[in-house]
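Limitations
The structure tokens in this dataset are predictions for the assembled complex, not deposited experimental models. Users should treat interface geometry with appropriate caution, especially where small molecules or nucleic acid strands are included. An illustrative entry is reproduced here so readers can see what is and is not provided.
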Amino acid sequence: MKYLDEYRDPRLASKMLKRIAERTSRRWTIMEICGGQTHTIIRSGIDRLLPDKISILHGPGCPVCVTPVHIIDKALVLASRTDVIFCTFGDMMRVPGNKEDLLTVKARGGDIRMVYSPLDAVQIARNNPRREVVFFAVGFETTAPANAMAVLQAYRDSLDNFTLLVSQVLVPPAIEAILSAPDNRINGFLAAGHVCTVMGYREYNPLAEKYLVPIVVTGFEPLDIIQGIEMLISQLENGTCRVENQYRRAVTEAGNLKAQHIINEVFDVTDRTWRGIGNIPLSGLALREKYRDFDAEVRFKPGDTVACESSECISGLILQGAKNPFDCPAFGNRCTPEKPLGATMVSSEGACAAYFRYRAKTVEKAG
Amino acid sequence: MTMSDKSRKPFNCPLPISDYPSILVAHGGGGKLMHQLLEKMILPTFSSSFKNNCHDSAVFEIAGTRLAFTTDSYVVRPIQFPGGDIGTLAINGTVNDLAMSGARPLYLSAGLIIEEGFPMETLWQILQSMKQAADTARVKLITGDTKVVDKGKGDGIYINSSGIGIIEHSLNIEPRSVVAGDAVLVNGDLGRHGIAIMAAREGLSIQTRIESDCAPLWNSVLALLSAELEIHCLRDLTRGGLASALVEIAETANLHIEIEEAKLPVREDVRGACEILGLDPVYVANEGRFAIFLPEAQVSRAMDILSNAFPDLAPARVGSVYGANRSAVTVKSTLGVARILDMFSGEQLPRIC
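Predicted assembly:
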């Protein structure tokens, strides 16, 4: 398939891997930020093709995983209301809150609709003027422009039955939280290509300078990731700490200015809680005062719950790169994708779910 | 637990009620939850009646003649989709379940459950599709039933169909017949039906001309049988796709099946849609595709037969069966690393990004 097979070419991959092996003189620990990259790495087995000296840790870049329990609980409350049509991306459906998930609410009769774009939810609101339509606005900088656009459309059309339940998070503050942790052991980052398609990569320069880590903006196909790793290793071996762009076919330094403008028009930066990690200052987005009428939390006041996370779950440590899924005694027995104990097992992009799906039964725990 | 609870234990639900107090859509999705439901509740309840419960139809003998019997219910939405409708599915699906036991499909029944207010015109179209599909598959629809439920108590129309076929050879075509050294073939490109349905479903506005692969499979099976190939197992790749079919067979046969990602036939437009939706084509449903297990030495003959009979389908040899002391399905990535291929848990849900 054009524009796809080129980035999965096994011969090119083995050439690059050979160069990486020749180049690597000492132990390096690198982290990919994005869940999509975690998925590619585990699915195509890239981590197993790298020299033993390179360890790959999986970062907090899965929006499904890091959406906090109290927000999921609010989603469940709203989705249970008979006057509400609750619209969500598919993979939020089985993320457990304190007691249940959206699939269970749907089974009880909740009107929950899977959509592929927030603009579809706006259309549902137009088509159902007597119902309240709530869209679950989850994600990183990648989903923010479309979610913002939905609000702008609803504002323009004076739709009074459309709201967002917002749980938008931002990548750079999460990287900073990981780097500033006292036990941080990450030497370099693969930054998330799609996020940078929107935001560009200027905001990563201060992080690279302050914490002396190289950061390579990387795509999602196997060859993208292998090349990103090669660029990272080359910087680490040379002792440089720059921000580089592997994903040049999609990302520019300034990013998509129009998308950024829309985000800034609708959203303001705010503190956000990350499931498994906790509160990170200025790490998320909230609707600006002008668009408060479109905030489902303001309109419906769904109430706050306190998250009762499993004390056994180590997803917070996994999301911060301190532990590997196989370090967890509950992995694969008490914690599975059907009955996840915590964040990283719930989405197919979570590190634990990826290991469970592709590695669990191979018993080769070496990774 | 009190004594009275204990005394009631035989009647307790064997699925821990705390897990799922009510049925989820995923309990019928062909993945893990459905298998839990089958294995923990349905099969044990009727264990004496299910002799070969791990295959698409039950095979039994009457007066020296081996017959195959199967039933299936069709609840597809939308009712009409590119390449077919619920009527086409109801005939082909049941015909194919019989064919997968190597049985020549003979007679079918059809039960229609129609919701009050259902358009007569659509019902007529569905009946015509059923007739056309039955004629193509050379089966006779000889008995049936019609019920109408109140408005809001059904989703337009549901169809159940059962079928009887006759086995005219001495092979035991079933998962337990698969042995190490077998090759795994598929009769054509994967994923068209699932993507066609998803594209037609409300709320997904990707522009696509992908049509369902819905088709009767008996002619393909007959062509293979007529060549006296030693077929060990056949399995149609419906709900849960190739992955779920292989996992089930590997578990029943207690063998290791390995497939190669690079050899899976998937049409470009289907691959494109899967990439956009974050779906893996090996889990996407088909309605006219099946896997064939036969000895390595017969692969080229089988491929010739399939290619000649159905030149536009791109049949492919996708993997091999190995001996193992544990059942597993692995898939070798394009980079040459093997990973586990598991049954999907729950429904396959499109990803955020």
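Some entries come with short summary sentences. For this one: Chain A touches chain B through 52 residues (CB under 8 Å).
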